[in-house]
Amino acid sequence: MDESAPLYSNPRLDRIAGMKIFHGLLVIALFSLGLFVAACSRSPEPVAALPEQDGVYFITPRNGDTVTSPVAVRFGLKGKGVAPAGTNLPNTGHHHLLIDTTTLPPMDKPVPSDEHHVHFGGGQTETSVKLAPGSHTLQLVLGDHMHVPLGQPWVSERITITVK
Questions:
Q1: Whole-Å CA distances, 56 to 7, 43, 87, 140, 151
Q2: In the predicted model, is pLDDT for residue 1 greater than 60?
């Protein structure tokens, strides 16, 4: 069949078929535009304000939050950069998450590695933690390339969350 040949033997029917195709494409384009505008107009999730001073902090969750498990935890850091463990670069460190601890680890030795002291030696800045229902405390400690805590202000406040 010749590509330039009309769809129908009647030119009026060709014009109607062309208009239907055009209107169908127009409806799809307008619907897609409406979805795009709706997606862009959503309010962003509130996040923790950037602290005025250098240190580590929780972006999420916040102190007093009630959450579900697994808990999405995002680490904040101001004044230093994140680098994987073993990378000895100036002004960098990596995160350690303390779960349900009552004291800090020694500041002159590597942070222990167990269910209460979770290492993020790959330079991760977020995680998902499975926690049983109830009250839990979380605290961040920034460590050097050898996992030794950098001290204040590189120790966050201890926050308390409730898991439903």
A1: 68, 26, 19, 7, 11
A2: no
Cα separation, 143 vs 118, whole angstroms:
12
Give the model's pLDDT for residue 21: 78
d(CA 117, CA 98): 5
Strand order in the sheet with 71-78: 55-60, 71-78, 126-129
Q: Hey, CA dihedral for 85, 90, 96, 98, is it positive or negative? A: positive
CATH of domain 55-163: 2.60.40.10
The domains of the chain are located at: 1-42, 55-163
Choose among 139, 142, 141: nearest CA to 157: 139
